[in-house]
Amino acid sequence: MKNALFIIILIGLSLCFTNADSQSVNNSKIPTVSVVGPPPEAPSCLDSYLSFCDNLQNILSAATANCTATFANDPDGHIECNNYAFDLYFNMHGVADAMYDRCKLNEAQ
C-alpha cells in the first residue's frame, strides 16, 4: 500500500508540473527574438533557496489535492496518502535547511 500511494503521489505531481504549452506546439515554428544588452545576473544562492521554499508549498498543495481526488471515497486511504504527502513536505524542508546552511557557508568564505 505504501508503494502504491507513493507512486500515485509522484504521478500526480508530475502531471501537475507538466508543461502543457510544449505539448501543444508540435510542429509550429517558434519566433526568435534578438536581445540587446548584458546577460541577466544569475540568481544568488539565497534567492535560489527562497524560490525552492516557495515551491515547497506548491508541491504540498498539489500532493494533497492529488490525495483528495484519488481517495475521495476511501477516508483511510486519503489520510494515509496525506500523511505521505506531509512526510515528503517535511523531508524536503530538510533539503531546504541544508541549502540554507550551504549558502551561509559560501557567503562567509
What attributes characterize this protein structure?
mainly alpha; 74% helix; signal; 109 residues
Molecular structure report:
The protein has 109 residues and is mainly alpha-helical. The chain has one domain (2-14, 45-108). It is 74% helix and 0% strand. The chain has four helices and no strands. α3 (45-70) packs antiparallel against α4. It starts with a helix and ends with a helix. The model has no long low-confidence stretch (mean pLDDT 80).
Summarize it.
With 109 residues, the protein is an all-alpha fold.
Radius of gyration (CA) equals 19 Å
Shape: flat
Characterize the largest beta sheet: strand count, sense, and whether it forms a barrel.
none
Q: Hey, roughly how much beta strand do the residues contain?
A: under 5%
**Count of helical regions:** 4
Class by alpha and beta content: mainly alpha
How far apart are the termini?
47 Å
Percentage of residues in helical conformation: over 70%
The tally of domains stands at 1
Which stretches are poorly predicted, pLDDT < 50 over at least 5 residues?
Answer: none
If you average the pLDDT, what whole number results?
Answer: 80
Secondary-structure element string = HHHH
| Number of distinct beta strands | 0
